[in-house]
Specification:
alpha/beta; Rossmann fold; 5-stranded parallel sheet; about 40% helix
């Protein structure tokens, strides 16, 4: 099953490469993307249960991924939010988890783990959000 995925990433090159990789390897369908906290919160909030996965960078053109995580706390049980950042320190991972992130991945060395996470999520039995 395809994961309906929304990407919050302000670097166009990283975003395009990420979408291409995940669509090819991990059964995701990119629904769109945002470069700012406000864009992301508006889209995610306005599309209720129409998405399965949000991938959030912490540093955005405006605001931060932490604000996006906080806004997603009231999401449906089947929806997942993960962080993909170059700043995945131990403290930041803990903070992201406290704000409701389901997982945190480092852009520099955990892309394979993100792909595996998406594959497992897509293959998991049960209804989507």
């Amino acid at each position: 099953m395809e994961l309906r995925t929304y990407i919050i990433e302000d670097n166009a090159t990283i975003r395009e490469n990420l979408i291409g990789t995940l669509e090819e390897l991990a059964s995701i369908k990119a629904l769109g993307w945002a470069e700012t906290e406000n864009e992301a919160k508006g889209w995610l909030g306005g599309h209720g249960q129409q998405w399965d996965l949000a991938i959030v960078d912490l540093f955005l053109k405006q605001g931060s991924g932490l604000g996006v995580l906080e806004a997603c706390r009231a999401r449906a049980p089947g929806q997942r939010v993960v962080v993909l950042s170059n700043y995945a320190t131990t403290d930041m991972r803990k903070r992201c988890t406290q704000l409701g992130a389901d997982a945190v991945f480092d852009k520099s060395n955990e892309i394979d783990a993100l792909v595996d996470y998406c594959i497992e999520l897509a293959e998991a039995p049960g209804p989507r959000a």
